[in-house]
UniProtKB/TrEMBL annotation:
Swiss-Prot/TrEMBL keywords: Methyltransferase, Transferase
Any one of the GO BP annotations: methylation
Record protein name field: RNA methyltransferase
Pfam families, per the entry: SpoU_methylase (PF00588), SpoU_sub_bind (PF08032)
Amino acid sequence: MNKRSDDREGGRDSKRPGRALRGRAGRMKNGRGSGRASSGMVRLWGRHAVESALKNPARSHRKLWATREGVDSLDGELPSDFPVEWAQGADLARLVARDAPHQGLVLECAPLDDLFLADVLDGNPDRPVIVLDQVTDPHNVGAIMRSAAAFDACAIVTQDRHAPPESGTLAKSASGALEIVPWVRVVNLARALEEIAEAGYWRIGLDGEADATLAQALPAGPVALVLGAEGEGMRHNIIQHCDAIARLPISAAMESLNVSNAAAIALYAAATREPAAE
């Protein structure tokens, strides 16, 4: 389960993290040139992604490959028995996707446990739900997670078959938010929207052709923001499961926004709306 972890800067321990680590230097085994993890494992890279995963008690970690500089950049000290293999930057590059900015840190760990939608819907009007309909680019999903963490979203919901898997690319784009924001993967997105409505959420689909703006459509209570893939937008069946369709009031000089930018703006609009009158 995605547990919350503190990924804020500052407050670094006086002891350097590298002093508590054991490992061996030299060339590394596993994943030569593939960027793939061992069977059933996920490989994460980059300081924010790795640091947040290390702090997440829900993660089961297998191994950390690292440079001395990478370990020194971590906020906090690892246990003395944590499995670390010291390496050079060129060696780490062979463990990750091509040209991926690993920042001297590559972590292999178990994927996060599956979540049930009912377990993450809290009905708090200050915490929107983000629903993504066939948004498949891991960079976009990761960026949306980062915005969702910044604006304290309740959860991100995607369809299991039409969303990227948990990966190093997604985690790097999320900059630690993969460990913070609950990510619910469902078999049937329309059915999930029904469950979200039953939990008291007003479902707003974003579409550039809508008559109403998002500000006009936003309710005072709990809201679920539904975004479709770039170009194709939301599928017809998903639109039918929304309570309202709204657009972002962008200039006519620009046809559309990247889906991650649209999600960030929609989350900001939800966070700054007028509170419900008592």
